[in-house]
Every structure is written in structure tokens, then in C-alpha cells.
């Protein structure tokens, strides 16, 4: 844990709870890229930013626990989808603001996270690129937890819709911004190696 986090009053949750279907069922967070696991690339960027780093995962708990201040899991370990990770992360967060990132985006940088951090202090925010929202790159006020839980109980499972329902604004990214590249298929790992 860093002594003086750059983002005060902000938790960061890395979403690593998926089944990795496009990776042949492998845990994406531990896939190697440039001789390091994808989660380790994310960790190197986010660790100095917060004193509350949470990883949402459904397997490899001991490995992830070595990188995080805490881990959270889906309540029923059923790989319920990223909205579950967002809700679990908000429930566990110690701070008023929470940034969410997928574990398979190793090109993320602190400048983009700074933009999320600045904007979340007035409203929830999701990145948008080429007209498409990227809800797994988002920042939410912890006070939105009850609203997101209510949406889950009502049957909503799509993070984009749930975040729009709480009034999330768009943070536009350039069409060719490489920081949002998702390394979620073996071919993409090879292409960017």
C-alpha cells in the first residue's frame, strides 16, 4: 500500500472475474503480455494512485490477493457478469469515489485515470470511443450503490444501461486511443506483442 496515494478518497477496482471464454477458459488477468501478466501491467499503473486497491475475481484468489488490498467475488461464484463486480466493488470500497477497470487493458495510463477521477467528483462517468460506451472503464460515486443494487434486483445485467440509469456522463476518447485496447483474445495478445 502506498504511503501517500495520488488520488485521495478514491478506491480502484480491477474487474478480473470473467470466465475468459475467448481465452479458452483461462483467467485473462494471468495471461502473459511482454513477459508480465496482464494484471501486473494494470497493477504497476494503479498502485501509486490509491490506498484502496480491490480486485474482483472468481478464481486464483491467493494470486490476486498478493496484488490487492482486498479481493471481492461474485456472491454465488457463478460468473454473473461485470455488473456484479461493479456492485461488489462498490460494496467493499472504503472511499467515496471508485474507478473501475478491466484486467485485460494493460495499456491504460495514469493520465486517463486522472480524467476519470476528476469527473467522478461531480457525476458518474464512462469512457466512450467511436460512439460506443466502455462501461468497464468507468468511475462511480459510492453513494450510487443502492441504485445499482436495485437495478440488479429488477433484472438489469448490462453495466452500460445500469450506469446510464444513474446518470453517468461520457468521457470521450479518440477513435485510435490505444489505452482502451482490450487484450481479450489470444490473437490480440500476439498482435500487440
Strand content: 15-25%
Give the H and E element order: EEEHEHEHEHEEHHEH
Compute the number of strand runs.
Answer: 9
Read across the widest sheet, the strand sequence of neighbours is: 5-4-1-6-8-7-9
Large-scale geometry: globular
Residue-averaged pLDDT, rounded?
89
Structural class: alpha/beta
| Major β-sheet annotation | 7 strands, mixed
Distance between the termini: 30 Å
Task: Label the CATH architecture.
Answer: Alpha-Beta Complex
SS element count, helices: 7
CATH superfamily: Spore Coat Polysaccharide Biosynthesis Protein SpsA, Chain A
Uncertain segments of ≥5 residues (pLDDT<50)? none
Query: What's the domain count?
Result: 1
What is the CATH C-level name? Alpha Beta
The percent of residues in helical segments reads 25-40%
* CATH fold category name: Spore Coat Polysaccharide Biosynthesis Protein SpsA, Chain A
Please give the radius of gyration in angstroms. Answer: 15 Å
Amino acid at each position: 500500500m502506498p504511503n501517500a496515494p495520488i488520488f485521495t478518497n478514491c478506491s480502484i477496482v480491477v474487474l478480473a472475474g470473467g470466465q475468459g471464454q475467448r481465452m479458452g477458459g483461462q483467467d485473462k488477468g494471468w495471461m502473459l503480455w511482454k513477459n508480465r501478466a496482464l494484471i501486473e501491467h494494470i497493477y504497476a499503473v494503479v498502485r501509486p494512485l490509491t490506498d484502496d486497491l480491490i480486485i474482483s475475481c472468481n478464481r486464483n484468489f491467493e494470486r490476486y490477493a498478493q496484488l490487492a488490498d482486498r479481493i471481492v467475488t461474485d456472491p454465488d461464484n457463478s460468473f454473473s457478469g461485470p455488473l456484479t463486480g461493479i456492485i461488489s466493488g462498490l460494496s467493499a470500497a472504503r472511499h467515496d469515489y471508485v474507478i473501475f477497470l478491466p484486467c485485460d487493458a494493460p495499456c491504460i495510463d495514469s493520465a486517463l485515470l486522472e480524467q476519470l477521477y476528476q469527473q467522478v467528483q461531480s457525476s458518474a462517468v464512462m469512457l466512450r470511443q467511436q460512439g460506443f460506451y466502455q462501461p468497464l472503464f468507468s468511475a462511480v460515486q459510492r453513494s450510487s450503490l443502492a441504485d445499482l443494487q436495485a437495478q440488479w434486483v429488477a433484472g438489469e445485467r448490462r453495466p452500460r444501461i445500469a450506469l446510464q440509469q444513474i446518470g453517468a456522463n461520457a468521457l470521450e476518447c479518440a477513435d485510435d486511443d490505444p489505452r482502451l485496447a482490450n487484450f481479450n483474445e489470444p490473437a490480440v495478445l500476439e498482435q500487440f506483442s
